[in-house]
From TrEMBL:
Keyword Lipid metabolism attributed: no
Native source organism of the sequence: Sinocyclocheilus anshuiensis
InterPro entries: Ankyrin_rpt (IPR002110), Ankyrin_rpt-contain_sf (IPR036770)
Ranges for the ANK repeats: 18-50, 51-84
PANTHER family reported for this sequence: ANK_REP_REGION DOMAIN-CONTAINING PROTEIN-RELATED, PALMITOYLTRANSFERASE ZDHHC17
Keywords per UniProt: ANK repeat, Repeat
The protein's name in its UniProt record: Palmitoyltransferase ZDHHC17
Domain of life, per lineage: Eukaryota
Gene coding for it: LOC107658960
Keyword Repeat found: yes
Length: 114
């Protein structure tokens, strides 16, 4: 569906009222293949919403699945960015959410500076 929408001129750079891009939303709802497609089409993997949350932060906080997080990490996201208000990184958000799936990613220390 997303491919068809873009084929007919849909603008993937639009953001919603909370500053979320399509990459943010696809990540939050676990649509990993859509995230990959949008990034491949040039969407910014480190774009922040109005609260300074990146797609990686949302993946770590909302998705108790390894897929969106692992995919975003393969695109060399900035793992040490902090959000606007608390300066929490994606790893902080994973801990706050009790997201042991992300916390226990194999070789996660290769991605996150501890």
């Amino acid at each position: 569906m997303v491919v068809q929408l873009m084929k007919y001129g849909a603008d993937p750079s639009l953001i919603d009222g909370e500053g979320c891009s399509c990459v943010h939303l696809a990540t939050q709802f676990g649509h990993t293949s859509i995230v990959a497609y949008l990034i491949a089409k040039g969407q910014d993997v480190d774009m922040m919403d109005q609260n300074g949350m990146t797609p990686l932060m949302w993946a770590a906080y909302r998705m108790h699945s390894v897929d969106p997080t692992r995919l975003l990490l393969t695109f060399n996201v900035s793992v040490n960015l902090g959000d606007k208000y608390h300066k929490n990184t994606a790893l902080h958000w994973a801990v706050l959410a009790g997201n042991t799936t992300v916390i226990n990613l194999p070789n996660y220390s290769a991605y996150f500076r501890l």
